């Protein structure tokens, strides 16, 4: 009997390990695990353990292959082996990028574990997300995680729940909408509608949690998908194959079944930047982080559905960067700061035959500290900052009288989305010279002078 019990236990444990090797599986009694995340610029950054080393990954539904950025010099620490050379292509006007496929990596997210995960190492430093987000990002993960587990994303409270499918029990929800998913190249698509000039147009959109914008649409005159006359040209972001540029404006409304988002931001990328995306002929665009964050979501890839429920961010107004400046982390610089400690000096003075007088002098001490530096990496032509005389590569020293290093990159970016007319004062370092500039925020869609 004892042998029989031991044999059964071995089969049970072995079965769980095999399951973990073939797919992500939550290894605890409840078969569910909660993972907190950072929400940076509408993007989800989660802790991911690779071969025993904890890193930060972007959770990206628009990515079919897990990626690790080898230019961050983490490959040696992770004991990743080079096994196969590949070339990957994505958005952007450039060529395909070189990647190395590595097999049999152990990946752990919360209590969800997979023992034989393939990783694709990229070496192009232009794809580095860390300077743009101001937090470390070592890689990107998407389909391989979503296909194995039920994933609930609570954008409002900044956590996600991973559950084994056989354990998941959906809760009744009167205020939810269930949308069917379609998959092309391991990427999820949903059907929606847009309203423009009184017309309602059905669209098929890639769900891209790895994009910080709200909505991208591909212009198509025959379908009636085209930009409003009131638009501005802008840098839209980096794709796997280079920079993406296009038009920015708004649409009257986006409809996700009964949910309607009015005056949503929309971008129309240049045709040259989206040639690879247009290979899915029925695709009309992308719905990304600035829309997705307004819902709490439950992704069930095995049943090809996503459940949407409005959260507290749903009514947050859409806005554009009104300065024209895009900043990025630019290393560190030494900053002179007053030390909390002071040195005391005692002086004794004599005045003839008078009693000696003693004077205590408090002499402040200073120290040099390393602080983050932020540089201008994109500057929209004809924007308030451009007209004020700011230039690319200017390093921002102070904002509205306060040191730039007193803010996070995200806090500074939020300032640029403030109300029209808000005054911004910047002090910058330009090639070793300190310069000051003033400008007022103005919506790029405001046609009035």
What share of residues are in beta strands? over 45%
Percent helix, as a range, is: 10-25%
Q: Which geometry do the CA atoms define?
A: globular
Number of domains: 3
List keywords for this structure.
449 residues, mainly beta, Cathepsin D, subunit A, domain 1, Pdz3 Domain, 3 domains, 7-stranded mixed β-sheet, 6-stranded mixed β-barrel, 7 helices, 11% helix, 49% strand, globular
Brief summary of the model shown:
The protein has 449 residues and is mainly β.
What do these coordinates show?
By secondary structure, the protein is mainly β. It folds into three domains: 16-167, Acid Proteases (Cathepsin D, subunit A, domain 1); 176-310, Cathepsin D, subunit A, domain 1 (Beta Barrel), CATH 2.40.70.10; 325-337 and 369-440, Pdz3 Domain (Roll), CATH 2.30.42. It is 11% helix and 49% strand. The chain contains seven helices and 31 strands. It has helices at residues 2-22, 75-78, 130-133, 143-146, 289-292, 384-388, 409-415; strands at residues 25-26, 32-36, 38-40, 43-50, 53-59, 67-69, 84-88, 97-109, 112-122, 139-141, 150-154, 159-163, 176-180, 182-184, 187-196, 199-208, 215-217, 232-239, 242-250, 253-256, 259-262, 265-269, 285-288, 295-300, 305-310, 325-349, 357-379, 395-399, 402-403, 423-430, 433-440. Strands 14, 15, 16, 17, 20, 21 and 23 form a seven-stranded mixed beta sheet that branches. A six-stranded mixed β-barrel has the order 4-5-10-6-9-8. Strands 2-12-11-24-25-13 form a six-stranded antiparallel beta sheet, with no helix packed on it. A hairpin with a 2-residue loop joins β14 and β15 (187-196). The radius of gyration is 27 Å and the shape is globular. The termini are far apart. Residues 1-20 have low confidence and may be disordered.
């Amino acid at each position: 009997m004892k042998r029989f019990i031991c044999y059964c236990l071995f089969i049970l444990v072995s079965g769980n390990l095999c399951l973990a090797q073939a797919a992500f599986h939550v290894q605890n009694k409840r078969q569910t695990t909660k993972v907190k995340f950072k929400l940076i610029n509408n993007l989800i950054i989660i802790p991911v353990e690779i071969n025993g080393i904890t890193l930060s990954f972007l959770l990206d539904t628009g990515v079919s292959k897990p990626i690790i950025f080898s230019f961050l010099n983490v490959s040696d620490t992770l004991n990743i082996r080079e096994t196969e050379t590949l070339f990957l292509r994505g958005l952007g006007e450039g060529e395909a990028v070189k990647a190395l496929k590595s097999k049999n990596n152990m990946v752990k997210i919360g209590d969800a574990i997979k023992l034989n995960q393939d990783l694709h190492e990229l070496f192009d430093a232009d794809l580095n997300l860390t300077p743009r987000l101001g937090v470390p990002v070592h890689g990107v993960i998407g389909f391989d995680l979503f296909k194995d587990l039920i994933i609930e994303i609570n954008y409002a409270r900044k956590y996600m729940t991973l559950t084994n499918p056989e354990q998941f029990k959906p809760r009744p929800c009167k205020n939810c909408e269930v949308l069917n998913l379609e998959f092309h190249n391991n990427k999820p698509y949903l059907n929606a509608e847009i309203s423009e000039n009184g017309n309602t147009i059905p669209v098929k959109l890639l769900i891209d949690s790895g994009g910080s914008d709200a909505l991208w649409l591909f212009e198509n005159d025959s379908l009636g998908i085209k930009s409003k006359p009131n638009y501005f040209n802008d840098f839209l972001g980096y794709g796997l194959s280079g920079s993406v540029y296009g038009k920015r404006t708004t649409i009257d409304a986006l409809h996700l079944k009964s949910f309607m988002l009015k005056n949503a931001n929309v971008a129309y990328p240049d045709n040259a930047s989206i040639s690879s995306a247009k290979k899915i002929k029925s695709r009309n665009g992308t719905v990304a982080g600035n829309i997705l964050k307004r819902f709490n979501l439950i992704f069930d890839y095995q049943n090809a559905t996503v459940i949407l429920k409005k959260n507290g961010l749903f009514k947050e107004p859409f806005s554009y960067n009104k300065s024209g400046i895009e900043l990025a982390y630019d290393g560190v610089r030494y900053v002179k700061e007053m030390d909390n400690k002071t040195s005391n000096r005692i002086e004794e003075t004599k005045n003839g035959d008078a009693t000696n007088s003693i004077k205590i002098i408090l002499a402040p001490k200073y120290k040099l500290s390393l602080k983050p530096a932020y540089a201008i990496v994109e500057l929209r032509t004809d924007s308030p900052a451009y007209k004020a005389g700011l230039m690319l590569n200017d390093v921002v020293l102070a904002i509205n009288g306060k040191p730039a290093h007193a803010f996070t990159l995200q806090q500074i970016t939020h300032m640029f989305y403030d109300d029209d007319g808000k005054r911004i004062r910047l002090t910058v370092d330009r090639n070793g010279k300190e310069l000051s500039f003033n400008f007022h925020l103005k919506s790029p869609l405001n046609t009035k002078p």
